[in-house]
Design goal:
Layout lengths: L1 E8 L9 H13 L4 E3 L4 E4 L2 H16 L5 E8 L7 H13 L9
Helix pairs in contact: 1-2
Amino acid sequence: MLVAFSISPISADPSGSVTDAVAAAVRVVRESGLPNRTDAMFTTVEGEWDEVMAVVKRAVDVVAEVSPRVGLVLKADIRAGYDGQLTAKVERIEQALAGDGAEETA
């Protein structure tokens, strides 16, 4: 499964910066050893249900250590029998954009 999630800590920093708290959450994901990708809005992680959800929980827990309130947005693509979709889905789109076509939709 793929899980894209975003953790939103409430910041006590007068500047509104949440960089350190978000970096701590991303560190948890990267140290998990699961395939992952972080962009400006979400972190996506790939693996089995229990291992992915455990990583999300640990990431939320790390943010909760420095924030009295934490928001979580989560989107999952659950597709049994498919691995490597973190990159394969993007590759299919790139092929379609290049005019090579894609046999399967993202």
